[in-house]
Amino acid sequence: MKRFNLFVKLVEMILDVDCEFRDDVHHDLDDVLAGAVLGTNIILLSENLKKNMADNPLLVYLVLAHEIRHTWQFANQSYSFENYYTGKEAPEKYEMQECEIDANAFAYLVLQLVTGKTPKHNTWKIFSYDSIMLRVRELEFAFRLRCKNRDVRKLVSILKQYNKF
Ligand SMILES: [Zn+2]
Questions:
Q1: What spacing in Å lies between the alpha carbon of 163 and ligand 1's midpoint?
Q2: Which of 26, 44, 59, 100 is the most exposed place for a label (fewest CB within 10 A)?
Q3: Tens-digit pLDDT profile for the chain (165 aa)?
Q4: Domains of the chain, residue spans
Q5: What is the rounded CA–CA span in Å between residue 56 and residue 42?
């Protein structure tokens, strides 16, 4: 589990947020992997996510970075969540929401940072890929600047030892 703890620390450092992770509360996340509680810094982890930790660590990284980005969005009031669609209600509308595209683009950049590789389209099955890539290009410059921080670089080099895929 150490690698995931380090990963979370890294993402929190990049975004300057402090999240609370809960896996002990009842929720209806069984068919998704994790979820940020709207307007809070709380991230709920599902059993399903934990099962993926051994077999599909890249997916777990993507999900964690995505959810931590949502808490950053809440803290910075970057998006309105008033008419938010969940994946269950409307899968296509859900994916194309700006907050989801932003969270996926951010997760993409983090994954690239810690693995040194470009995440493949099929790492997470998603059809908003082109929109995500546009957002990646918008975020890239500021993201790289944040990652020049010495503590960020230190954590990345430790994580890279875990990530010899
Ligand atoms: Zn999301």
A1: 24
A2: 26
A3: 788 999 999 999 999 999 999 987 666 655 678 999 999 999 999 888 888 888 888 889 999 999 999 999 999 999 999 999 988 888 889 999 999 999 999 999 999 999 888 777 566 667 788 999 999 999 999 999 999 999 999 999 999 888 665
A4: 2-162
A5: 23
Q: Tokens in use for 75? A: 């803290």
Say which residues have a Cβ less than 8 Å from residue 76's Cβ, sequence separation at least 6: none
**Rg over CA atoms, the chain:** 15
Which residue type does 93 have?
K
Total-model pTM = 0.92
CA of 17 to the centre of ligand 1 (A): 17
